[in-house]
Fold this sequence. Notes:
alpha/beta, 36% helix, globular
Amino acid sequence: MTSTLTDTSSAPPAHPAATTDIAPPATDIAPTARAAEAVEFFRRRLRFETDASDVFAAQQSGEDFVLLDSRSAAAWAQGHAAGAIHMPTREIADRAGAELRSGVPIVVYCWSPGCNGGVRAALELSLLGFEAKEMIGGFEYWAREGYPVEDGSGIHRRAVDPLTGPLSASAASCAC
């Protein structure tokens, strides 16, 4: 019997540089050879991700999309992005077909950057044929950037956290 602690037949190489599927150290990258890959990578990310600033700007301009909070009922009641609908990830398969319009983009979020619930919800919607994007930063960054939060007592705006957004009242986004 072979011990799983000492069996090296399926163990990864001792050093990451020994594999070909791991990116080489930054010093080994030839900028002109990798630029096309980088362009494709970042374009793909932008097709599937957005942020609180862009979502708020889209709301303000009247873009046709759905903002979907995929958190639990307790989290929703605690506060959610104003204008969002509530559909916990575990309910998407049962509810999305009846409650969401085909062809209308859906932006999903969960709690925070430390939570992959938005990714799970976007995957579930995509599996059902919906066009979905994740709002990176989740509800945490929506609230910390000072965008409207709704709860049982109405709509509120908290002060902008200086680590997440511009403090100027005239700056509606980070302008990045």
